[in-house]
């Protein structure tokens, strides 16, 4: 992956269209200037055209040189991708398509992803071309508001819209146990305090806005106000960590705002399509290798809804605490909970009861030689 990241950074920094666009604009400007000169003085047409014949070819060559660098960067990036993700000809992607009958869900996932990412024009065009998609009309309006607040926060360092939104949703946020409103107001205080001659404004802001949080956040408010005693030597004071990295605080509070905004809409903070695609990219090499082995040995999966191998995903991609019984292959439920044997192996209760049938005293673990009794099994609460 390092080679891909390296080529991507090179492509992003050097092999981009900015130089080419600039040179195209210069070429267009030459043509427009010549046209204007001819319009003002038709007798100068021959001279203007002669000048163009000298300057335009050079400008076009410059554009070609710019494009060569872009094509070269794309080529290097493509080779890095091919080297890292080697293609295989032993597996056909058409063998089994779990979503072949779910085109409406795929369209909805794509449209929702575009809306969530703030690509509203692309989402609108996609919905027009893909046909009717079941998305509540108010969602686009909600995400437009979210990105307006985020842009004010991240670009202009204006926390006002975010604080106003959090205040209007204070009941719902309190019910969720969220401290978003206080975090925003605290960051506003820090930002004011660090401005040149901004301590007085920070003091008045604290008196007006932070007092409403005294019951729940008194200790943190006292620490913020304690910084006034060290205005001239804040960096060596005990309160320095509170003011150490406001830029990072802006990113953190923006992420917290996004999470809370989406939660109140009943949505996850990250796009499900992005998560699914990333998890699929992680799992794909293992699945393709397993598919190739099975095809070579002319064997198949036991069921299309079951993976043939364990896929290790990062902790951030594990969303449900579930347990699938290794004996029955069924997911456990409240009526069929996971049970742990003294040896440490865990199976479903129904599988345990089937093992106990016909044995009055002992049960042999299906995964190790150790024996135990039904009464020794302990329910596992996930």
TrEMBL record:
What name does this protein carry? GID complex catalytic subunit 2
Q: Name one Pfam family in it.
A: zf-RING_UBOX
**Alphabetically ordered keywords of this record:** Cytoplasm, Metal-binding, Zinc, Zinc-finger
What is the native source organism of this protein? Morchella conica CCBAS932
Please state every residue range assigned to the domain named RING-Gid-type.
325-368
Instruction: Select a single GO molecular function from the record's annotations and give it.
Output: ubiquitin protein ligase activity
Main subcellular localisation: cytoplasm
Zinc fingers (RING-Gid-type), as residue ranges, are 325-368
What GO terms fall under cellular component here?
cytoplasm; GID complex; nucleus
- Gene Ontology process terms (BP): proteasome-mediated ubiquitin-dependent protein catabolic process
Matching entries from InterPro entries are given as:
CRA_dom (IPR013144), CTLH/CRA (IPR024964), Fyv10_fam (IPR045098), LisH (IPR006594), Rmd5_dRing (IPR037683), ZF_RING_GID (IPR044063), Znf-RING_euk (IPR027370), Znf_RING/FYVE/PHD (IPR013083)
The subcellular location is: Cytoplasm
Q: Which family does it belong to?
A: Belongs to the RMD5/GID2 family.
């Amino acid at each position: 992956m390092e080679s891909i990241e390296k080529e991507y950074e090179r492509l992003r920094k050097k092999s981009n269209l900015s130089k080419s666009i600039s040179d195209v604009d210069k070429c267009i400007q030459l043509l427009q200037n010549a046209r204007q000169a001819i319009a003002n003085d038709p007798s100068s047409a021959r001279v203007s055209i002669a000048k163009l014949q000298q300057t335009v070819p050079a400008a076009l060559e410059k554009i070609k040189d710019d494009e060569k660098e872009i094509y070269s960067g794309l080529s290097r990036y493509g080779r890095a991708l091919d080297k890292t993700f080697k293609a295989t000809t032993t597996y056909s992607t058409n063998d089994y398509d779990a979503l072949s009958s779910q085109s409406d869900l795929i369209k909805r996932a794509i449209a929702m992803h575009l809306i969530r990412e703030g690509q509203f024009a692309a989402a609108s065009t996609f919905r027009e071309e893909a046909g009717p998609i079941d998305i509540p009309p108010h969602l686009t309006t909600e995400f437009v508001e979210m990105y307006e607040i985020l842009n004010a926060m991240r670009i202009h360092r204006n926390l006002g819209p975010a604080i106003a939104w959090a205040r209007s949703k204070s009941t719902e946020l309190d019910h969720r146990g969220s401290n978003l409103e206080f975090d925003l107001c605290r960051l506003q205080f820090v930002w004011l305090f660090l401005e040149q001659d901004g301590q007085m404004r920070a003091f008045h802001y604290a008196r007006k806005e932070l007092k409403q949080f005294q019951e729940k956040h008194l200790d943190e408010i006292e620490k913020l106000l304690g910084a006034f005693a060290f205005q001239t030597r804040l960096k060596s004071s005990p309160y320095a960590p509170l003011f150490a990295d406001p830029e990072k605080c802006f990113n953190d509070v923006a992420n917290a705002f996004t999470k809370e905004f989406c939660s109140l809409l009943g949505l996850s903070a990250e796009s499900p399509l992005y998560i699914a695609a990333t998890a699929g990219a992680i799992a794909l090499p293992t699945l393709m290798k397993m598919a190739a082995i099975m095809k070579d040995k002319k064997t198949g999966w036991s069921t299309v809804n079951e993976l043939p191998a364990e896929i290790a995903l990062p902790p951030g991609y594990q969303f449900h605490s579930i347990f699938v019984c290794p004996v029955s292959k069924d997911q456990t439920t409240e009526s069929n909970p996971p049970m742990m044997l003294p040896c440490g192996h865990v199976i479903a209760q129904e599988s345990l009861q089937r093992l106990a049938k016909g044995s009055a005293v002992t049960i042999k673990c299906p995964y190790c030689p150790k024996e135990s009794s039904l009464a020794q099994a302990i329910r596992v609460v996930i």
